[in-house]
Amino acid sequence: MTRIGTGLAAELREAPDAVRRQADEIAQPLAELIARLAQRPPGLVVSCARGSSAHAATFAKHLIERYLGIPVAEAAPNIASVYRRELGLKDQLFLAVSQSGASDDLVETAAMARTAGALTVALVNDERSPLAAACDIVLPMVAGTEHSVAATKSFISSLAALLRIVAQWTDDAALRRGCDRLPERLAEAAKLDWSAGLRPLAGASSLIAVGRGPTLAIAREAALKLKETCALHAEAFSSAEFRHGPIALVSPTYPVMIFAPTDESRAGLRELVADLQRKGACVLVAQPGSAQRETLRAIPLPALHAEQPEADAICLIQSFYALLVGLAERRGTDIDAPPHLQKVTRTR
Fold first, then answer.
1. Are 53 and 101 in contact (CB under 8 A)?
2. Which numeric CATH code is attached to 192-331?
3. Is the separation of the CB atoms in 9 and 326 below 8 Å?
4. pTM of this prediction?
5. How far apart are CA 255 and CA 259, in angstroms?
6. What distance in Å separates the CA atoms of residue 214 and residue 236, rounded to the nearest whole number?
7. Each residue of 1-51: pLDDT tens digit?
8. What are the boundaries of each domain within the chain?
9. CATH topology of domain 7-188
10. What DSSP line would sit under 163-221, residue for residue?
11. Would the CATH topology of 7-188 be identical to that of 192-331?
């Protein structure tokens, strides 16, 4: 499905090796972080991110709340950069996620959190960035250089790093196995055939992406990438939030792409698929082949067999990225250099 020589396609193939390298390079700073968290456990985690990194922060929220029971709140960076207000973050964990580490509002928010007494952590692809310098601990994504404007390899690397953080923090054997198996499974996921989605998406004007639990972050990232690389308007919702209003948009010409989780949250999505099919919607469902029997009238997008739910979710976005290459070609867009965008975006 990918075209040789395309920047994003090349980076898609590089993602498994990036995640494999990450295991060694993140080990020392991660060990330091876990030691400090053990010494002074936080009662709150505050995340701070923009763009694709904000979707990684959504993934972090799911992981930390699901496996540690610690609430995770999203910081509004302009509180520090525009309003100059310090938050009460003493002894809490502040987690900033950024591919470039160069956005002024993230840097200023991290500096504010550090001054307020938070343990500040930067998950970045550029360890020499201003954001890295502003934080106590720097966790490298180890994605390497990305030439395509749209972040893909670094997004996958950020999710892998977050999975490693929580696996170490909880000492959860299943999470650790998910980390260990991830490079191999990412390579397999990139080869899955999602071409069944090309026809309904090539002619669409809008799309809704739906996820739940570990796949909500995946749905949000998919919606952003469809806008960025394929000029296809897309919005993302949890399956629960989708029922609170947006479901009114459903029609045969308004595709709904569902990223099915492999944990207990899957049951609610199965019910949603059945409801959408009764309403005559065009539904695309990404899930393991063994589950396709439950959604026979939906357009199937194959996923790897279920192993560990959060690792399974990361593999879904890898398969989706492979779909993007063919979809951009069908829609006549430049996947590596979308209009009006640049690789490093700086905001205040």
1. no
2. 3.40.50.10490
3. no
4. 0.92
5. 13
6. 14
7. 334 335 778 888 899 999 999 999 999 999 999 999 999 999 999 999 999
8. 7-188, 192-331
9. Rossmann fold (3.40.50)
10. HHHHHHHHT-HHHHHHHHHHHHHHHHHTTS--GGGHHHHHT-SEEEEEE-GGGHHHHHH
11. yes
